C-alpha cells in the first residue's frame, strides 16, 4: 500500500484511484479508504478545476494531443477513432500531461500548437485537424 507521501504524489500527478490501485495491486476502494485515513483532499491535490494539455504515446511516438479536465487523458469511451480507442482499451497507449492552465482557451491554444508541431513530424495520427 502507498504511504501518505506516495499517495499525495499520485494525486498531484492526477492519477485516478483505479490507476493507483493497479500499481499497488489492490482495489480502488482501498485507495479511497487510504485517502480518507490520511485526510487528503484529492480534488485539491489534483487541481480538478484546471485544464490540462496531454499527449498519448504509442511506443516512441505521439499519436494524439488533447486538452480538457484532469481525467480526460485516460478516457477511451469518448474516442472517435476505433483504432485509438482499442489501443487505449488494450493498455498500449501511455499518456503524459504536458501543461496545466486556469483558462480553457489557453489550454486549447497550446493543444493546437502541439498538434501542428507533431503533424509536421508525421505524428499525432489520431488528431484530425488544427485551426
How is this structure best described in words?
The protein has 131 residues and is α+β, with helices and mostly antiparallel strands. A three-stranded antiparallel β-sheet has the order 2-1-3. A hairpin with a 2-residue loop joins strand 1 and strand 2 (61-68). The longest helix has 17 residues, at 104-120. The chain starts with a helix and ends in an 11-residue tail after the last helix. It has six helices and three strands, in the order H-H-H-H-E-E-H-E-H. Helix 2 crosses helix 3 (28-37). Helix content is 43%, strand content 18%. It has helices at residues 4-12, 17-23, 28-37, 42-46, 82-89, 104-120; strands at 51-58, 61-68, 94-101.
Question: What secondary-structure arrangement, pairings included, does this model have?
Answer:
Layout: H1 4-12, H2 17-23, H3 28-37, H4 42-46, E1 51-58, E2 61-68, H5 82-89, E3 94-101, H6 104-120
Antiparallel strand pairs: 1-2, 1-3
Helix pairs in contact: 2-3
Low-confidence stretches: none
The percent range for strand residues is 15-25%
Helical element count? Answer: 6
Quaternary structure classification: single chain
The amount of helix comes to 40-55%
Distance between the termini: 45 Å
Q: Using only CA atoms, what is the Rg? A: 16 Å
As laid out across the biggest beta sheet, the strand order is 2-1-3
Structural class: alpha+beta
Could you give the count of β-strands?
3
Mean pLDDT: 93
Major sheet, described briefly?
A: 3 strands, antiparallel
Principal-axis shape: globular
Can you write the helix and strand succession as a string?
Answer: HHHHEEHEH
Amino acid at each position: 500500500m502507498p504511504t501518505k507521501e506516495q499517495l499525495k504524489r499520485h494525486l498531484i500527478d492526477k492519477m485516478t484511484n483505479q490507476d493507483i490501485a493497479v500499481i499497488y495491486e489492490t482495489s480502488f476502494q482501498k485507495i479511497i479508504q487510504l485517502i480518507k485515513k490520511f485526510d487528503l483532499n484529492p480534488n485539491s491535490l489534483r487541481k480538478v478545476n484546471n485544464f490540462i494539455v496531454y499527449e498519448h504515446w504509442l511506443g516512441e511516438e505521439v499519436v494524439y494531443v488533447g486538452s480538457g479536465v484532469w481525467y480526460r487523458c485516460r478516457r477511451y469511451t469518448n474516442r472517435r477513432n476505433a483504432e485509438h480507442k482499442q489501443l487505449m482499451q488494450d493498455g498500449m497507449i501511455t499518456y503524459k500531461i504536458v501543461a496545466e492552465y486556469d483558462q480553457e482557451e489557453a489550454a486549447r491554444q497550446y493543444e493546437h500548437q502541439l498538434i501542428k508541431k507533431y503533424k509536421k513530424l508525421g505524428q499525432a495520427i489520431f488528431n484530425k485537424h488544427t485551426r
